Amino acid sequence: MVTNSMNEAVQSPLSRWDELIGAIAAEVGTPFWLYDTAVIERQVRKLQSFDTLRFAQKANSNLAILKVMRRNGVLVDAVSIGEVDRAMAAGYALGGDPAEIVFTADLISRETLERLAALRIPVNCGSIDMIAQIGRVSPGHPVWLRLNPGFGHGHSAKTNTGGPLSKHGIWHTELPDALAAVEACGAHLVGLHMHIGSGAEYSHLARVAEAMVECAKGLARPIEAISAGGGLSVQYAPGDAEIDSQRYFSIWDEARKRLSDRWGTLVRLEIEPGRFLVANAGQLVAEVRAVKSVDGNVFVLLDAGFSDLMRPMAYGSFHHIRFVTSQGAPVRGAPVPVAVAGPLCESGDVFTQEEGGRVVFRTLPVPAVGDFAVIEDAGAYGASMSSNYNSRPLIPEVMIDGGAVTLIRRRQSIQELLQLEDPSILSIPHGLRE
Ligand code: LLP
After folding, report:
1. Which three-class secondary structure state does DSSP give residue 341?
2. Which stretches does DSSP call E strand in 126-233?
3. Helix/strand/coil for 296
4. How far apart, in Å, are the Cα atoms of 218 and each of 179, 212, 406?
5. In ligand 1, which atom is closest to the CA atom of 233?
6. C-alpha separations of 122 from 128, 153, 181, 217, 340 in Å
């Protein structure tokens, strides 16, 4: 049995709400997501040195969360038309200097192209094809170039967004061709962008900033801005480093100053984190529904699975887990090795696993059926990556904002899922009928 002793976590800021868990569960049922905006606002303040803080909403795109970002002066990045619509629904305006909404992708579908052109939302282009496509339909369209500097970094191979095996960005040696494409279609180049995956290694970061300066030097004229992308790490497990935001800023500020000095113009510095702003601000709360011994191995089974939080299953990500009683007190008792798993009809539905799928055991007190399991640091890529696998409806999201506890997404119903397949509303385009 592989045991994992990393469960002695730093106290989660959300544990102060444990007493409310029973009451919230009685209202909305389990499982549910619980967010605390105070943690988001704390994280926002840490990045205030950057000229522009842009939230990568893929991490958590709930409208209420976007509104919290907006009221704190945080701009937004969108990676799909759905995310553009969300940003607008949350009150982000079109236009602005800097633009309130930027669209980042490596390709644009036809429908997306039309909408982005009509809305004139700046497009951060990860391929040369994109530049030509947007430039053709929208003359003078504002564009960024997302560059792959030739190397990357990530908490898993699946989140490494640089280097020759990454599909993201324009390969650095193709920059002259990208600039020629910008020129040819008369697009307006706003800035250069690099997002190469997450990590808290400052030597690596300095290399990225250096690559940015080198690429920018190849430009014929000054640009308005550079973007450091996202990827700022947070603490999931004890011993994980949270990024030193001032040090992070200094490295990028120095790069920006070199370009400003070179061109004699002010170059704006953007940063585009997702996880850093929301990961520690959210947790998944589930009910313990069974505790069983499998050849001596203790499995604690919850009513939440990887259809809700898929990070452990996708990347072997560590999330601290604690058990609380219905009164919100920590479950006590002699800690033993336990695996924590979900209800899905799939063996990989285990929250305590390493990358590659090996089940690991954590040393925890054994809860009883009816206690709650709190899976921490799940505010980023939790709800936003959930699915309807096993025909499980999406679960509610609850936000604590100051003194107010608000339901910010209700539970989806099975009827809503079935409606999409209702034969009476389905029609095949006319030409295909014969
Ligand atoms: N900007 C761009 C262009 C990105 O591709 C990403 C993330 C971000 C910003 C924000 O990265 P962050 O600061 O959140 O690390 N599902 C994975 C993470 C995928 C990240 C994809 N791109 C996870 O759960 O860890």
Report:
1. strand
2. 142-148, 170-171, 188-193, 225-227
3. coil
4. 10, 10, 50
5. 15
6. 15, 26, 16, 22, 44
d(CA 365, ligand 1 centre) in Å: 34
Residue listed under structure tokens 């070179």: 262
Write out the H or E segment, with its range, that includes residue 55: strand 52-56
Neighbouring C-alpha atoms within 13 Å toward the C-beta of 137: 19
Q: SS3 for 105?
A: strand
Per-residue pLDDT in tens (0 to 9) along the chain, 434 residues: 767 666 666 688 999 999 999 999 999 999 999 999 999 999 999 999 999 999 999 999 999 999 999 999 999 999 999 999 999 999 999 999 999 999 999 999 999 999 999 999 999 999 999 999 999 999 999 999 999 998 877 777 777 778 888 889 999 999 999 999 999 999 999 999 998 766 667 888 899 999 999 999 989 899 999 999 999 999 999 889 888 999 999 999 999 999 999 999 999 999 999 999 999 999 999 999 999 999 999 999 999 999 999 999 999 999 999 999 999 999 999 999 999 999 999 999 999 999 999 999 999 999 999 999 999 999 999 999 999 999 999 999 999 999 899 999 999 999 999 999 999 888 877 667 65
**296 CA to middle of ligand 1, Å?**
39
Residue 107 C-alpha to ligand 1 middle, in angstroms? 17
Pocket of ligand 1 (CB under 6 A): 56, 59, 104, 159, 161, 195, 198, 229-232, 272-276, 311, 380-381
Tokens of 146: 């997302």
Pocket test of ligand 1: the residue of 130, 155, 159 to mutate, having most ligand atoms within 8 Å of its CB, is 159
Pocket test for ligand 1, best of 60, 107, 275, 317 (most atoms within 8 A of CB): 275
Q: Which atom of ligand 1 is nearest to the CA of 197?
A: 15
Active-site positions read 345
Contact yes or no for 14/33 (Cβ under 8 A): no
Whole-model pTM: value is 0.96
- Strand 282-294 and strand 372-375: pairing? antiparallel
Q: Of the residues 80, 195, 245, which should be mutated to test ligand 1's pocket, given the most ligand atoms within 8 Å of the CB?
A: 195
Residue 15 DSSP class: G
